[in-house]
Specification:
The chain is mainly beta. It contains no helices and 10 strands. The strands form 2 sheets. Strands 2-10-9-4-5-6 form a 6-stranded mixed beta sheet, with no helix packed on it. It has a 4-stranded antiparallel beta sheet with strand order 1-3-8-7, with no helix packed on it. The chain is globular and about 40 Å long.
């Protein structure tokens, strides 16, 4: 069955960096676009970054220039490098595979001094 396991979150000071990782299994990873979403308390889940099967990337305006999404098809993993973190980046971060209707448990990112 489909599994997505996010990791790499934590507590970081403003201006710091984190690298999130998502391990995927149960589907053909290489033929699916991969996405990172986030959800802060009291808000709707929002798309943060997307990478297509050919490596084309798209970002939400709020993270452009600070976040970088990448994928490793050999290891069935997608990553989110987050630099220059801000308090407003605090949220639970989730990865999602294309149109597959499955969500993992997410990983908490907290940006605070």
């Amino acid at each position: 069955q489909v599994q997505l396991v996010e990791s790499g979150g934590g507590l970081v000071q403003p201006g710091g960096s984190l690298r999130l990782s998502c391990a995927a299994s149960g589907f053909i990873f290489s033929i699916n676009a991969m996405n990172w979403y986030r959800q802060a308390p009291g808000t709707e889940r929002e798309l943060v970054a997307r990478i297509t099967t050919s490596g084309i990337t798209n970002y939400a305006d709020s993270v452009k220039g600070r976040f970088t999404i990448s994928r490793d098809n050999a290891r069935n993993r997608v990553y989110l490098q987050m630099n220059s973190l801000r308090p407003e980046d605090t949220a639970v971060y989730y990865c999602k595979a294309g149109a597959i209707n499955y969500w993992g448990q997410g990983t908490q990112v907290t940006v605070s001094s």
